[in-house]
Design a protein that fits this description.
Helices cover 44% and strands 22% of the residues. The chain is α+β, with helices and mostly antiparallel strands and 347 residues long. It is globular and about 75 Å long. Residues 1-38 and 45-66 have low confidence and may be disordered.
């Protein structure tokens, strides 16, 4: 009888300790929770002279064919066999008409899209792993080494969960920021897409060689493309079941024909990153995103200083033609506002 009572007390104590661990786990869950909408943050959703032609979420499928011409620019998004293609015509700052094309096979494109954004299913699977591992580790460690060791083991599982969570987000072009908010990781997106944008960059380089463009002219040609030939439209936070945090990765932006300020900044930086020595930073201000390029500012150029060096501001959002060193009036106000700006090096 006495042995039965002791056995009962042992299991009661074990159950109580496990319940306490579950409470601690619930508190940790609240700290790391990624809500379907509220926990995702769009980096920026505004532009100078904003020109939204379609509501966010109404993007046409990439298999549709669309031709658009205005202000000396045009875009054609279409399919040809198993390839997805985009052709853009625009006028650069040298007043030359430029034609640029981009293409991917449909299988490569679908695989590419899988590398951006996370699903609720993936998050639920990661949480399920953590809960099962907690229970297994607690039971084994408590029985062998007692409560203190079991709590330490649970803390180790939670740290492992945090590491896996952040690794998953990083692999999908996202990052966990202070306050446990998820947003796009622009440096990761840019570095990952530089090789993919090389053919487009080489097309611009060929033009620059033929026309004897300076480096400034070359940058201006790429800038004109994203500013004027691509429509301005805000991506959704969630698209087709994936949390994308309001960002289209560069290839998708090109094969869709649109994007907002951070989407266009990521695309432009991915193109320009193909030239050695090109140093760029992202500039985040409340509700807006732009970038800056390392060079000495000319007369009248707007610039920021980062680590003692000048970076000339570039405004990719459009739809206005704004040369390097020129930004919109709203952006100027944001840069000098009380909240200031955050510099984010791409490399």
């Amino acid at each position: 009888m006495e042995g039965t009572i002791l056995k009962y007390r042992h299991f009661a104590a074990l159950a109580a300790c496990f319940a306490a661990a579950c409470v601690l786990g619930a508190e940790w869950e609240r700290k790391l929770v990624i809500a379907p909408v509220g926990g995702d943050l769009a980096r920026a959703q505004s532009s100078e002279d904003e020109d939204e032609e379609e509501e966010a979420g109404e993007e046409k499928e990439y298999t549709s064919q669309e031709t658009r011409t205005e202000k000396g620019t045009s875009q054609k998004i279409y399919t040809e066999g198993t390839s997805l293609k985009a052709q853009y015509q625009f006028i650069n700052f040298n007043k030359d008409r430029v034609t640029i094309s981009f293409a991917m096979t449909a299988p490569d494109y679908m695989k590419y899209l899988e590398g951006y954004g996370y699903s609720d299913k993936e998050m639920n699977g990661l949480r399920a792993w953590r809960e099962k591992t907690r229970q297994d580790v607690w039971k084994e460690t408590y029985t062998k080494s007692g409560k203190a060791a079991a709590e330490a083991a649970i803390a180790g599982v939670d740290m492992d969960y945090d590491t896996r969570l952040r690794a998953l987000l990083r692999a999908r072009g996202l990052a966990m920021r202070p306050g446990n908010v998820v947003e796009c990781d622009m440096p990761v997106v840019v570095k990952r897409n530089i090789p993919l944008m090389k053919p487009l960059a080489m097309s611009l380089q060929k033009l620059a060689t033929e026309k004897k463009y300076s480096e400034e002219d070359l940058i201006g040609a790429a800038l004109s493309l994203v500013q004027t030939a691509m429509r301005y439209k805000i991506p959704p936070l969630i698209d087709k079941g994936l949390h994308i945090c309001g960002l289209l990765p560069p290839a998708r932006a090109l094969l869709s024909g649109w994007g907002d300020c951070d989407t266009k900044s990521g695309l432009l930086a991915s193109i320009l990153g193909n030239w050695s020595g090109m140093r760029m930073v992202g500039i985040a201000v409340p509700g807006h995103y732009l970038m800056a390029i390392r060079r000495l500012p000319g007369k009248g150029d707007m610039f920021v200083r980062y680590e003692g060096l000048e970076y000339v501001l570039v405004e990719p959002a459009g739809p206005a033609w704004l040369e390097p060193g020129t930004v919109g009036t709203a952006t100027t106000a944001l840069l000098s506002g009380r909240d200031g700006y955050k510099v984010e090096p791409f490399f």
